[in-house]
């Protein structure tokens, strides 16, 4: 990966108002999740006197049905949602890159077998698997990360495989092969560096889908269990108070939307930036 | 005195690129009279196709016409509305393109594509347009036109598709037909058939033809007049006889030496022109052919004048400046010297 | 043509095999005694033993698999652990509600996505494109259950315009009533599909507009709108068939969240109830059923595509 590609990404980012907004949003949310304690409230401290207080000076996001500060819950919830998003992305990217590189580099029966496996996994509706696995396994944060990752590696594997197949035909790889370098050496030194752009783009989009999956799962009640909150489970409980306290539904949903939107926008900007011939304005 | 159909004055077209303005056409003036067949000859990048597109107002961003005036039947085409252009294109001025394989929409039947044009410009109903389309196909030499109209483009060979494109171009009896390298993408035998079709067209219809090509052989067979372009400028212009027997510009002479003569025998040596065309991002201020010209001298770095050698025979070259006799004598010397 | 269909059918066989193995394995791994899924309340203990023997549960796993496969092929997906009804029957009973909802949502999405995608592609990087592009970004990024809650709040709670729950008002049997109940869930699902379709159609429109035949249409005096809706649209619509095939899998699974929020009595909420009640035979039945829908949906789309695209017809 050379410097001009990064420069392209930078140009693309600043040429696009959405991109700057996405970076800002994600920075603020990440800082908010890391420094969640600065909200001054314990996210699980109940206050029977302050149930369903609308947003105001004391509680910026109001309080929920147990009188807990909603901003604090949203910040701590964001911690889990973002953590699940990043961690699942890393696991999924790891699996996807491994399988994609092996499949693309070695080809032959191994490639065939791996790709057929992938077809099967893809032909079972993924959200159903998600539900199934969350029934079999205990819904802890670690398990949820693994389950989501198991559903996301396929896309990474596909693009990585395709890219590996192009890179391995390049002159310098053929030369390395001819000069007797080992397969692992070639993959490490020549193939992987060339894969960085597709991996980054795939990873960015995967964070978006991981956060979305976690939210859906938690919304249905199969995600992270109470009293810990995630944005999805907050929406689940907000459903019951939609008439009295619509703000309970507004904030977590907006947070999910903005986060996922930002990652999707960034993913597209990275793709265009890495591939200048694809779209030039 | 024949009627002037099209006149182009000082046309300039450029394309914005990342590295600057690509000045594809840099001040081109010519005319086409009603019913005549004019060849526009040049290498790729000489500006001939861009000129044709400009006449049809088909230059799209990043390209734009930066200067010049185009008149059709005496009326200026510059500043026509898009709607007025639409009633002109395909109707009074039609165009045939280089690659028949990509010219037609692959998912629509030939008949649909032909009748669409006929109905748009001639206001015929569906049945009448279909009958007309069949008549046109027969006219361009396609057998069983009624069946063929119900087929898709991929069921036609390249030559057949080009016939369809010609039929489509002729469907509204245009006053001017611009053919942009219509035979380049075809096999040699098919090329000859399509050229015959153009010859036939020239004999039997009122349509004026502008035949754009890089192949002087094609010009010799079909055209009455020739315009030679190079580096976005017209180098020489004259009748076929002028150009083939009395070429004045060193570039035209070079082109003539580089084509095989019919019946020339195997002893003949083809002499390609050395060098490459000028970079139009930063075109030379003088003669664009200077770098490759065997006769280049000091003054060639200034833009040469256009010199008229005989009625309608002009060239743009410093060698031709001064008395026309000198130029003629020079040309004589060159040709007899071979 | 026939060759193509046969080849495509043969391609699905290994897929079917693997999917069935996956489902069977999951059933085997499920906690509890698998015999229970074939037990009805009025059975005696020796009946149960006979079933155990018939099912071959005393035999090795691969024989069990084939017996299970044979039962599946006969349409015996087992019985619910909760209400002891046959699984396939329950799925088929719920199918119309889900199919109706998904069908209308997909139809709505395609009807909106085609013009939006064409307009966005034709006006690339102008304001119309930017607006449509932003809407589709929101569409792929918005949690559908949140959109559903917002719509319920607005249309059902604030404006009292539309019902927010179920498919029918109790005691009312009219198509208009069902339609009224369907508007919100259908809009939510359609918005979800819309975004993906628009992005796809936009990029294929941009690709088509670069094709030479489009440039040539201008030279024959075509209007931009004529080119777009007569020439480019057909190209763009063809791949939509493939998209529809891929949506077949969502027919069941994608509806889970939306059906749950709106208490829509379809396969999605059946699956949700089954997951909550650990009703493995029903979960497995739905998984297998939707996998089959996805596999055959893709196959049908491929075959249909070859019928519609004139370029493939000749080769097949």
Automatic annotation (TrEMBL), chain A:
Keywords: Cell membrane, Membrane, Transmembrane, Transmembrane helix, Transport. GO terms for cellular component: plasma membrane. It is a multi-pass membrane protein. The chain crosses the membrane at residues 12-38, 80-106, 118-137, 143-160, 191-213, 247-270. Gene3D superfamilies: MetI-like. SUPFAM superfamilies: MetI-like. CDD domains: TM_PBP2. It is found in: Cell membrane. PROSITE patterns: ABC_TM1 (PS50928). It comes from the Bacteria. Residues 78-267 form the ABC transmembrane type-1 domain. InterPro entries: BP-dependent_transpt_permease (IPR050366), MetI-like (IPR000515), MetI-like_sf (IPR035906), OppC_N (IPR025966). Signal peptide: none annotated. One of its GO terms (biological process) is transmembrane transport. Pfam families: BPD_transp_1, OppC_N. Its main location: membrane. Belongs to the binding-protein-dependent transport system permease family. This is Peptide ABC transporter permease. It comes from Paenibacillus jilunlii.
From TrEMBL, chain B:
Keywords: ATP-binding, Cell membrane, Membrane, Nucleotide-binding, Transport. One of its GO terms (biological process) is peptide transport. Residues 6-256 form the ABC transporter domain. It is found in: Cell membrane. SUPFAM superfamilies: P-loop containing nucleoside triphosphate hydrolases. SMART domains: AAA (SM00382). InterPro entries: AAA+_ATPase, ABC_Ni/Peptide_Import, ABC_transporter-like_ATP-bd, ABC_transporter-like_CS, Oligopep_ABC_C, P-loop_NTPase. This is Oligopeptide/dipeptide ABC transporter, ATP-binding protein, C-terminal domain-containing protein. It comes from Paenibacillus jilunlii.
From TrEMBL, chain C:
Gene3D superfamilies: MetI-like. InterPro entries: BPD_transp_1_N, MetI-like, MetI-like_sf. Pfam families: BPD_transp_1, BPD_transp_1_N. GO terms for biological process: transmembrane transport. Residues 95-305 form the ABC transmembrane type-1 domain. PROSITE patterns: ABC_TM1. Keywords: Cell membrane, Membrane, Transmembrane, Transmembrane helix, Transport. GO terms for cellular component: plasma membrane. It comes from the Bacteria. The chain crosses the membrane at residues 12-30, 101-122, 134-157, 182-200, 236-262, 282-308. It is a multi-pass membrane protein. It is found in: Cell membrane. Belongs to the binding-protein-dependent transport system permease family. This is Peptide permease. It comes from Paenibacillus jilunlii.
């Amino acid at each position: 990966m050379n410097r001009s590609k990064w420069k392209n990404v930078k140009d693309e980012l600043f040429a696009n108002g959405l991109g700057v907004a996405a970076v800002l949003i994600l920075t603020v949310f990440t800082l908010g999740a890391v420094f969640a304690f600065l909200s001054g409230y314990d996210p699980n401290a109940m206050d029977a006197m302050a149930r369903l207080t609308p947003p105001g000076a004391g509680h910026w996001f109001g309080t929920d049905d147990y009188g807990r500060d909603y901003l604090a819950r949203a910040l701590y919830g964001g911690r889990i949602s973002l953590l699940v998003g990043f961690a699942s992305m890393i696991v999924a990217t790891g699996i996807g890159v491994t399988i994609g590189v092996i499949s693309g580099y070695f080809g032959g029966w191994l490639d065939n077998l791996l790709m057929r496996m992938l077809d099967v996994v893809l032909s079972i509706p993924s959200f159903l698997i998600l539900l199934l696995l969350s029934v079999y396994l205990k819904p802890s944060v670690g398990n949820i990360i693994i389950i989501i990752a198991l559903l996301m590696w396929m896309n990474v594997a596909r693009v990585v495989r395709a890219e590996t197949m192009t890179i391995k035909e390049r002159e310098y790889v053929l030369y390395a092969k001819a000069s007797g370098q080992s397969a692992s050496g070639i993959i490490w030194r020549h193939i992987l560096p060339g894969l960085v752009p597709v991996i980054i783009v795939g990873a960015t989009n995967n964070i978006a889908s991981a956060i979305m999956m976690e939210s859906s799962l938690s919304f249905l009640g199969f995600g992270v269990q109470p009293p810990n909150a995630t944005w999805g489970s907050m929406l689940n409980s907000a459903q019951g108070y939609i008439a009295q306290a619509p703000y309970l539904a507004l904030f977590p949903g907006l947070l999910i939307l903005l986060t996922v939107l930002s990652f999707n926008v960034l993913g597209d900007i990275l793709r265009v930036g890495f591939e200048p011939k694809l779209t030039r304005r | 005195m024949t009627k002037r159909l099209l006149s182009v004055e000082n046309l300039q077209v450029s394309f914005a690129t990342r590295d600057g303005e690509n000045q594809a056409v840099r001040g081109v003036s010519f005319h086409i009279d009603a019913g005549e067949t004019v060849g526009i000859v040049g290498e790729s990048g000489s500006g001939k196709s861009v000129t044709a597109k400009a006449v049809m107002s088909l230059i799209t961003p990043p390209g734009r016409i930066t200067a010049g005036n185009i008149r059709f039947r005496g009326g200026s085409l510059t500043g026509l509305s898009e709607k007025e252009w639409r009633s002109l294109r395909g109707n009074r001025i039609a165009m045939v393109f280089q690659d028949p394989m990509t010219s037609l929409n692959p998912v629509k039947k030939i008949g649909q594509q032909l009748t669409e044009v006929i109905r748009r410009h001639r206001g015929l109903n569906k049945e009448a347009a279909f009958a007309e389309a069949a008549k046109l196909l027969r006219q361009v030499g396609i057998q069983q036109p009624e069946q063929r109209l119900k087929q898709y483009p991929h069921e036609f060979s390249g030559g057949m598709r080009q016939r369809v494109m010609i039929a489509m171009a002729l469907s509204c009896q245009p006053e001017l037909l611009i053919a942009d390298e219509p035979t380049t993408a075809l096999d040699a035998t098919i090329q000859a058939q399509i050229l015959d079709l153009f010859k036939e067209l020239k004999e039997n219809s009122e349509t004026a033809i502008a035949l754009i090509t890089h192949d002087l052989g094609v010009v010799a067979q079909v055209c009455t007049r020739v315009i030679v372009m190079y580096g976005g400028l017209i180098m020489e212009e004259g009748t076929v006889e002028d150009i083939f027997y009395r070429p004045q510009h060193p570039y035209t002479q070079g082109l003539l030496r580089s084509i095989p003569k019919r019946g020339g025998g195997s002893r003949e040596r083809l002499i390609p022109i050395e060098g490459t065309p000028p970079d139009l991002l930063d075109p030379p201020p003088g003669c664009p052919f200077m770098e490759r010209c065997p006769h280049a001298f000091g003054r060639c770095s200034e833009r040469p004048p256009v010199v008229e050698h005989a009625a309608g025979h002009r060239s743009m070259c410093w060698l031709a400046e001064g008395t026309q006799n000198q130029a003629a004598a020079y040309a004589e010397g060159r040709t007899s010297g071979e | 043509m026939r060759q193509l269909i046969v080849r495509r059918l043969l391609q699905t066989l290994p897929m079917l095999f693997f999917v069935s193995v996956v489902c069977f394995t999951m059933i085997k791994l499920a906690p509890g005694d698998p015999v229970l899924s074939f037990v009805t309340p009025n059975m005696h203990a020796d009946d149960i033993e006979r079933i155990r023997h018939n099912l071959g549960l005393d035999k090795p796993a691969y024989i069990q698999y084939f017996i299970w496969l044979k039962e599946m092929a006969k349409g015996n997906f087992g019985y619910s652990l909760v209400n002891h009804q046959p699984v396939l029957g329950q799925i088929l009973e719920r199918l119309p509600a889900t199919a109706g909802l998904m069908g209308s949502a997909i139809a709505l999405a395609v009807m909106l996505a085609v013009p939006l995608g064409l307009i966005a592609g034709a006006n690339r990087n102008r304001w119309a494109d930017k607006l449509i592009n932003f809407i589709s970004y929101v569409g792929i990024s918005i949690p559908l259950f949140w959109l559903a809650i917002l719509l319920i709040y607005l249309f059902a709670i604030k404006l009292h315009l539309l019902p927010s729950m179920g498919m029918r008002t109790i005691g009312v049997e009219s198509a208009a009533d069902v339609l009224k109940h369907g508007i919100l869930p259908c809009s939510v699902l359609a918005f979800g599909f819309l975004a993906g379709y628009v992005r796809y159609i936009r990029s294929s429109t941009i690709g088509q507009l670069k094709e030479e035949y489009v440039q040539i249409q201008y030279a024959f005096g075509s209007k931009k709108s004529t080119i777009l809706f007569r020439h480019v649209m057909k190209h763009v619509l063809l791949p939509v068939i493939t998209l529809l095939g891929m949506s077949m899998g969502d027919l069941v699974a994608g509806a889970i969240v939306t059906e749950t929020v709106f208490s829509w009595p379809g396969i999605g909420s059946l699956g949700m109830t089954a997951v909550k009640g650990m009703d493995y035979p029903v979960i497995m039945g739905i998984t297998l059923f939707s996998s089959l829908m996805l596999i055959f949906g893709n196959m049908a789309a491929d075959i249909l595509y070859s019928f519609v695209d004139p370029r493939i017809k000749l080769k097949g």
